[in-house]
Amino acid sequence: MLNKSEIGFVAKIDVSSMAKSIQWYTEKLDLEIDPRFEGPYWNQLNIKNMKRFALGLSLAKPGRGIGSGQAVMTFVVDNIEDAKVDLEAKNVVVSEIKDVGQGVKLAFFNDPDKNALGLRQNSKSEPAACEIGYCE
Questions:
Q1: pLDDT averaged over the chain?
Q2: Higher pLDDT residue, 57 or 6?
């Protein structure tokens, strides 16, 4: 699962206002919007010159706690089925793979402290794992 050439990393944070959060992260932390992922419900921000890492801002659903510790660190992989099999072979319990629309697939698992971790396979029109993060 952790073949370096096939993994990118996206840290997801739920936010209450996409516009306000984008402004804060770009102005306060100097992150840059990745134009390949601009949308009303999801945006990815890059740290300049840091490849294979991005911060994902997800517009929270009503009633979901913001800042409640429910951030999910996500490993972007090119083949989610293979990554799931690899983790399960190491006795990691992984959820079923779900197609969440537009060709994106997700699965989730926990570390020993019950911290949520995820697997994400992007659609064919989105960047491969090795293209996550800052691109020149």
A1: 85
A2: 57
